[in-house]
Hints:
Blueprint: E1 2-8, E2 12-21, E3 30-34, E4 43-51, H1 61-70, E5 81-89, H2 91-95, H3 98-108, H4 111-116, E6 123-128, E7 138-144, H5 149-160, E8 168-178
Antiparallel strand pairs: 1-3, 1-4, 2-3, 2-8, 5-7, 5-8, 6-7
Amino acid sequence: MFTFTGGSGGAWRVVESRTVKGEGLRAVESLAVAREPDDTAITSPAWTLRGFISNVRYATKTEVETLRSVQQGLARPRATLAALIPIRKNAAWWALAQDERREIFEETSHHTAIGLDYLPAVARRLHHSRDLGEPFDFLTWFEYAPEDAPAFDRLVDRLRATREWNYVDREIEIRLARAA
Length: 180
C-alpha cells in the first residue's frame, strides 16, 4: 500500500497542479509518498490518496516482459522531477467486459506501445485505488530527469489523445520537484 499525502513539508515540492478533467484537489505545497501510512511524513495534510501495486491487468505476457526489460527503477539520482496523475474512469468504462477494455486500452489506444516510446527516460509505477473505495481508480507516479521533461509532456499528450481517455471523467496532474 502506498499513500500520497498533500500538505506541507513533504519530500516533493509541488511545482504545478492543474485539474485536467472533473473536480480538482485542494492546493498543497508539497507531497509525501510513503509505502505504508505515515502520519509524520507531512504536516497539515490537505488530502491523502491511497493505492496498491497489482498485477498488470491489460497487458499480455510479451508486453509485460518488454516493459520490464526497458523500464528503469524509480529513485534514480538524476530523476529529480516527478508527476502524480490521479485518474478516475467513468461508469461506461467499468461496464465494459475485460476483453472490451483491453481492446480499447491496447488494440485501439496503444497505451503500452506509447509508454515504451518514452522508456527508460520516464519511469512509472501504477497504483490501483478503485477497489479501496478511493476517489480515483488509478494513481500513476512518474519520475524523470529535468532534460526529459519535454518527453514526459509528449507522453501525457499522446495518451490523452487516445480513445481510452474518452472514458476519463476526473484527472489531476501534479508536477513535482524533489525538495532540497
